[in-house]
């Protein structure tokens, strides 16, 4: 749906045009767009301040039907994320106005003081991501997405960035797929049906896919994963996806927490937002979608996705607090709390990944702890790693994609919190404080010798309210981050 198009606005008939505008700096070198901005600035209520909006109908002497201006604020505070947001909000607004086909005037990066490719890519991302609506369960669709968006650039840029639109679309398709998976309610997303949905997409996308079902998980002794699955009549599954280029320079394993619903188990969750726990597979969704992106972009490393899928439920068969289970690694785990289930399934998935693929790098994404949301809020993920170069690379990718991460510590002495009187380790820390850290330390016990990073996405994976280029619900957080890292690091 996305195109970079060099058109002459004097001649080319355009129905709806979106123009981002700064309050104190001209951003557009195209003279027609410049004149339109000058007209907009004569309207007293519009100054180009951040988030200001103006619609002009039928500007004189131009074959344009309507123009939507979006304010970006001051030029010295302009960054790619401001363009992403302006494009996202602009597209959302146009969708509300019933627009199906949109033209967007891209700012001249030199005038904007930004790196050209990063600025253009961000604008394109905002357009594609802002165009996603999740209305599968509504009989009456209130709005319809754009069918096509043309971003207007110079002929020179159109040539130089000929492949950018397709690349952005491939990445954003991943983000959108992850959002759709997260938003799917748990009655239509059991471990086995989700596994099938992933493998169907994987096969279409050119990945190899394998699903290990309950009998084989039992035979192979995935004791920690099976303990979480025990309370649900929906059986668990482990999905393994692989992108294998001809000359892969290293093996990267991505692990994603896939709890299709987290009731808490016997330590049942209280509180009003239990329905949001359909989002507890957002790590799995991001990893599966990132693998599809890796294939589409033909990333030059071998990338393996290891995705444990379970439902954490309550029943006569459920695992009890106090139970001791033997994980795949051989380590025994005392289940101090059945609601600390994510680390159990990740422990077995990581052990499996190390044995089967001996990766140089292993990164897991998980909606792991409420404590991480308390620490960093809804918009920022916690990044845990002892590998300084890997940390720097991931932080750089987080900066570029605005999928923000903040470095968190892994202090050895806090391992004290995970001591069990009866087993090798407890899944329940002895203190509430530092809950995101103790959860990460639990995982670190299963990371072997690989360069490993853990990203706790409990906050940013799912948002109650819509944001500039995302609707309420699943955000697809992590897909752009991982693909940026895979591409640039
Ligand atoms: N899935 C939750 C964490 C979560 C919280 C995700 C909020 C998204 C939003 C996780 O399984 C959990 O229940 N963690 C417990 C751990 C505790 C029992 C040690 C928590 O954070 O309270
Ligand atoms: Mn839980
Ligand atoms: Zn959980």
Characterize the structure shown.
- There is one protein chain.
- With 489 residues, the protein is α/β, with parallel strands linked by helices.
- It folds into two domains: 153 residues, 3-Layer(aba) Sandwich (Leucine Aminopeptidase, subunit E, domain 1), CATH 3.40.220; 319 residues, Zn peptidases (Aminopeptidase, 3-Layer(aba) Sandwich).
- It contains 15 helices and 20 strands.
- Strands 7, 8, 9, 10, 11, 14, 15, 16 and 18 form a nine-stranded mixed β-sheet that branches.
- Helix 10 links the parallel strand 10 and strand 11.
- Helix 9 runs antiparallel to helix 11.
- The longest helix is centred in the middle third of the chain and has 20 residues.
- It is elongated and about 80 Å long.
- 53% of the residues are buried.
- Manganese (II) ion (MN) binds next to loops.
- The site of zinc ion has 5 residues, from strand 10.
Give structural attributes.
single chain, 489 residues, alpha/beta, Leucine Aminopeptidase, subunit E, domain 1, Aminopeptidase, 20 strands, binds ligand BES, binds manganese (II) ion, binds zinc ion
């Amino acid at each position: 749906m996305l195109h970079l198009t060099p058109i002459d606005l004097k001649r080319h008939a355009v129905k709806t045009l979106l123009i981002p505008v700064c309050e104190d700096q001209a951003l557009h070198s195209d003279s027609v767009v410049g004149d339109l901005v000058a007209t907009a600035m004569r309207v007293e209520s519009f100054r180009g301040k951040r988030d200001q909006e103006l619609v002009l109908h039928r500007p004189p002497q131009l074959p344009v039907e309507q123009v939507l201006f979006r304010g970006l604020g001051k030029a010295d505070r302009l960054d790619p994320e401001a363009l992403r947001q302006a494009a996202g909000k602009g597209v959302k607004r146009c969708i509300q106005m019933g627009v199906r086909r949109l033209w967007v005037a891209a700012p001249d990066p030199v005038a904007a003081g930004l790196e050209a490719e990063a600025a253009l890519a961000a604008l394109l991302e905002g357009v594609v991501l802002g165009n996603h609506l999740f209305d599968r369960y509504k009989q009456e669709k209130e709005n319809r997405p754009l069918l096509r968006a043309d971003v207007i650039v110079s002929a020179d840029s159109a040539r130089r960035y000929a492949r950018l639109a397709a690349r952005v679309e491939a990445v954003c398709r991943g983000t959108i797929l992850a959002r759709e998976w997260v938003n799917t309610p748990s009655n239509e997303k059991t471990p086995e049906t989700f596994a099938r949905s992933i493998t169907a997409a994987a096969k279409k996308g050119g990945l190899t896919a394998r699903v290990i079902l309950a009998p084989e998980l039992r035979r192979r002794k995935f004791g920690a994963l099976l303990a979480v699955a025990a309370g649900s009549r929906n059986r668990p599954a482990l999905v393994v996806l692989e992108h294998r280029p001809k000359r892969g320079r290293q093996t990267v394993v991505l692990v994603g927490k896939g709890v299709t619903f987290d009731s808490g188990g016997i330590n049942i969750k209280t509180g009003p937002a239990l329905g949001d726990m359909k989002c507890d597979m957002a790590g799995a969704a991001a990893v599966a979608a990132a693998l599809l992106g890796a294939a589409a972009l033909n990333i030059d490393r071998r990338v393996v996705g290891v995705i444990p899928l379970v439902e954490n439920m309550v029943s006569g068969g459920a695992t009890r607090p106090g139970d001791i289970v033997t994980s795949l690694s051989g380590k025994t785990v005392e289940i101090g709390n059945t609601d600390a289930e994510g680390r159990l399934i990740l422990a077995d998935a990581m052990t499996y990944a190390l044995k089967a693929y001996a990766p140089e790098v292993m990164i897991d994404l998980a909606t792991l702890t409420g404590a991480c949301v308390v620490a960093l809020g809804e918009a920022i993920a916690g990044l845990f790693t002892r590998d300084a170069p890997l940390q720097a690379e991931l932080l750089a990718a987080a900066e570029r994609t605005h999928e923000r991460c903040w470095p968190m510590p892994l202090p050895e002495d806090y391992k004290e919190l995970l001591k069990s009187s009866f087993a090798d380790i407890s899944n329940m820390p002895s203190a509430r404080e530092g809950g995101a850290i103790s959860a990460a330390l639990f995982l670190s016990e299963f990371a072997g010798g690989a360069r490993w990073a853990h990203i706790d996405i409990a906050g940013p994976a799912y948002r109650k309210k819509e944001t500039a280029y995302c609707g309420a619900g699943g955000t697809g957080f992590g897909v752009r981050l991982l693909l940026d890292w895979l591409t640039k690091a």
